């Protein structure tokens, strides 16, 4: 009897998961609508991971080209 009630209370309190995106401990509760993620941000990151990553790489390459072009400009003509 006593054992049964203690087990159920432990199950209620000790439910935690690691956020798949940032690894933060996330309480698995009904209030947490983003579970198993810690926040909406982490959920969005995981859902759009492959897409946003591709976009980010493309963007970075674009910026790299731009900064390279600026770097190539002779600055020591002063
Ligand atoms: Zn997170």
Summary tags:
78 residues, binds zinc ion, mainly alpha, two-stranded antiparallel ribbon, 56% helix, 2 strands, Erythroid Transcription Factor GATA-1, Chain A
Give an overview in words.
The chain has helices at 2-13, 40-47, 49-72; strands spanning 16-18, 25-27. A hairpin with a 6-residue loop joins strand 1 and strand 2 (25-27). It has 3 helices and 2 strands. A two-stranded antiparallel ribbon has the order 1-2. 56% of the residues lie in helices and 8% in strands. The mean pLDDT is 75. It has one domain (13-71): Erythroid Transcription Factor GATA-1, subunit A (Erythroid Transcription Factor GATA-1, Chain A, 2-Layer Sandwich). With 78 residues, it is mostly helical. Bound molecules: zinc ion. Zinc ion is lined by residues 19, 21-22, 24, 37-39, 42.
Rounded radius of gyration (Å): 24 Å
Instruction: Count helical runs.
Output: 3
The poorly predicted ranges are: none
Q: What is the average per-residue confidence, as pLDDT, rounded to a whole number? A: 75
Q: State the helicity in percent bands.
A: 55-70%
Instruction: Count structural domains.
Output: 1
Strand residue content: 5-15%
CATH architectural label? 2-Layer Sandwich
> What is the chain-wise order of helices and strands?
HEEHH
Shape: rod-shaped
Instruction: Give the C-level CATH assignment.
Output: Alpha Beta
């Amino acid at each position: 009897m006593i054992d049964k009630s203690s087990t159920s209370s432990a199950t209620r309190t000790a439910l935690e998961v690691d956020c798949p995106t940032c690894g933060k401990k996330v309480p698995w509760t009904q209030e947490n609508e983003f579970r198993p993620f810690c926040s909406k941000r982490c959920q969005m990151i995981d859902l759009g991971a492959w897409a946003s990553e591709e976009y980010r790489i493309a963007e970075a390459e674009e910026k790299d080209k731009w900064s390279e072009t600026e770097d190539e400009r002779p600055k020591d003509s002063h």
